[in-house]
């Protein structure tokens, strides 16, 4: 994996960590990896965020929420949406992956494993309810652009799987 | 150069806009809940991609036009999408055949656009290609499933492939903007994508136990703004709000 540069002023980390993804409220935007840079210049903050998927409708809300959080901390801010480097699920932090699992969304597997499960060839995705890997793909597209629909064949619960994006 | 780059971006983005609108028509009307959600997810990806292209085009135009103006305020003859993407959702076989025939082209196109000297276009391509891989996986899966399925599903898929085949050649026609942008190292030479396209499409059709159409007659015109009858109806719906309440904003 290529390490992509993330440039965030350490004074802002705590403030930005309180902003969450509106569609997955347990996941902070910092753990999601969508904040690429946040720097203070003459008392103003310039934040660069990158979308998970091009059509992700949450980006506008995330931008507004960042502005609001920074304002409460006494900063005016400017948000810029950048496309390069393109977001990847590798940027979700270990804490973010755990938050996803606790919330009932299976975290993304490695790219090759992801292909196997999305072609229904291997059963590798762990059910976030009972922990079984006896799960099957229902549809490659789920409730949001970033997820696929799965069902557990042991506890029979349907659940979302966060698709690998590389 | 500026005008040609603008035209070039529209040539890319209009395909995604019109196909996105076609798929969006299935919201609440897909054959099953899962396929309905899948088609509208793909639609959402395409619209997201279109926004990136049109925002860039608006910046290049630099005359106050916005991404919404470009999407909504053009006349039929000013849309330069290929004829393939405006074809209607006749049945699910047509919807998937149209998707597959476009996705294979789209993937090949984006993998070349990634190398563009224009850094914005290259960044958009790198973003989009990740999403389009999922689209192609979905549509080729359905070609195989319906083609190598029941007698009825096979007949319907074969009919859809035969009918839509006539629109595939246009994908590889160069426009004036194409030629200008290729010479600048910005654009993709689509003529070079053709052999690889048919090779891959034919492989999938064979796996799906479908026959490869033999027709040598192809339709064209979309890239010059000369469309099939279907586009007018599509635009009527797409532009409804702007026609009814001119200049309205969200």
TrEMBL record, chain A:
It comes from the Bacteria. InterPro entries: Fe-S_Maturation_MIP18, FSCA_dom_sf, MIP18-like, PaaD-like, Zn_ribbon_PaaD. Residues 13-72 form the MIP18 family-like domain. Residues 114-163 form the PaaD zinc beta ribbon domain. This is Phenylacetate-CoA oxygenase subunit PaaJ. It comes from Winogradskyella marina.
From TrEMBL, chain B:
Pfam families: PaaA_PaaC (PF05138). InterPro entries: Aromatic_CoA_ox/epox, Ferritin-like, Ferritin-like_SF, PaaA_PaaC, PaaC. Signal peptide: none annotated. PANTHER family: 1,2-PHENYLACETYL-COA EPOXIDASE, SUBUNIT C, PHENYLACETIC ACID DEGRADATION PROTEIN PAA. This is Phenylacetate-CoA oxygenase subunit PaaC. It comes from Winogradskyella marina. The lineage of its organism: Bacteria, Pseudomonadati, Bacteroidota, Flavobacteriia, Flavobacteriales.
